Structure to design on (117 residues):
């Protein structure tokens, strides 16, 4: 499986308020905004993602390492072949998202970009 770093993301309850905080308070540069807001810091992409549910918010369970893959189905199959439980790929706007957990239960996301149609 060939992986590349994609981003670190945080769920937020109010995207506009979060954009103001990260941009105006922390001084990060807003790079793009669609359904998520993207900032860059020292070459690292930081995304702010609107939370769908209250359970997605807060604490150490909020941050995720997200790895971009070219073929999410192949990545899932390869991980499962190694005995790693991986979720099915879920369609999201502009891509597919799946999750695995490290031995300590930390979630790692797999992301495949899908060109908008």
């Amino acid at each position: 499986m060939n992986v590349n770093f994609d981003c670190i993301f945080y769920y937020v309850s109010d995207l506009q308020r979060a954009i103001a905080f990260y941009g105006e308070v922390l001084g990060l540069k807003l790079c793009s905004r669609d359904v998520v807001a993207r900032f860059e810091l020292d070459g690292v992409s930081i995304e702010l993602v609107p939370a769908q549910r209250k359970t997605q918010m807060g604490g150490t369970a909020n941050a995720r390492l997200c790895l971009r893959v070219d073929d999410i189905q192949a990545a899932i199959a390869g991980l499962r072949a190694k005995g790693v439980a991986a979720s099915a790929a879920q369609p999201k706007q502009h891509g597919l998202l799946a999750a695995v957990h490290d031995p300590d239960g930390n979630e790692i996301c797999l992301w495949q970009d899908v060109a908008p149609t």
About this structure: The chain is about 20% helix and 45% strand. Residues 15-25 form the longest helix (11 residues). The chain has a mean pLDDT of 86. The two ends are 27 Å apart (CA to CA).
